[in-house]
Design goal:
Shape: elongated
Low-confidence stretches: none
Largest sheet: none
Number of helices: 7
Helix content: 55-70%
Number of strands: 0
Amino acid sequence: METKQSKLAICAAAYYVMASGEILINNNKKDKVTRKRRRYWVNEYYKSRNKYNATNMLYDLTLNSTKKFENFCRMSPEDFEYLLNKIGPSITKTDTNMRKSIPIQEKLAVTLRYLASGDSFISLSYMFKFSPQSVSRCVQEVCSALIQELKDEIKQTYK
């Protein structure tokens, strides 16, 4: 059986080892704190969306009667509005305090442009001024909504 003195000696030795280890760890760090460079959610280029964005571009294309809108989206403005009314409620997001959501017109336009031209998500991100990840998410979301909303209107040739 251990005596009180031996228990006290063991506790003192353990304390000494723990304290000396902490001192060594603190001396190795040399109390130098380096701060990480802060990353932001939004790139500076994408912040310029409020000056001129794809919604403005689509509006400008519809005002022009030279069929520029049909060339860009591969459909008439009336068909674009029809699709927008069909899938709009299912792809609408709400704005938050942190950021504004991407308008549904731009989501549909970037998807149609992707399907029409086959451009990469990176090149579309420069044109529409949102990240390639957002372009990818928009294309997937809009294609799913189109399939869901138009499944009764599309004729299936195979079963």
